[in-house]
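input
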Amino acid sequence: MKTVFWNVDTQYDFMRNDETHKGKLPVEGARAIEGNLELLTKLAAREGMQVVNTADWHTYDDPEIDDNNPDFVNTFPMHCEAKTKGAEYVPATKPQDPYIVDCRNGQYDAEKLRTERNVQFYKNEFNIFTGNKLAEAAVDIIAPDRVIAYGVATNVCVDFAVMGNLERGREVYVVEDAVKELPHLPLDATMDRWKDAGAKFIKTAEVADYLR
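output
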């Protein structure tokens, strides 16, 4: 059984709104989970675990971008704009020497997907499996049986990652003290849906024991 860590969108525009970076779409309270995110990143490195890292990588023609009249459910102002600091990972989760699979590139190297410890997927939609046309086949090559998921936002992109993997027959463990939600969107209903679909919940401190 292959287990991978799944780091969802822990980028400056979501994670920070302080003197280090004024996030374009900050998730309230996200800074508070960075300690746990760092522990997970270090654990993955120490154990030699492969990490799937997803990242928004937007341009103005992407379907969820609306600077004029965003509804903050299906559309949002520009954030994580490609090639800006806002699209970079915060230090707690920054992947080491990642192999990048770009949503705007039509190819990937299957051997690198199998062997590189960090694989980074750029996406231009909430859902990694539709926002990067290569992701479906690429993740099948990575071939995880179990996914340990964490990141932001719980009720948006983490939701798509969790449900997407469950729907594809993988076990999913959500690190409940290493995710953070958008407060204006439903949370309890999201997590109930995960539970009904078979997701399990663990704490950061329990992950190392689970791996053993």
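quick obs: The first strand starts at residue 3 and ends at 8.
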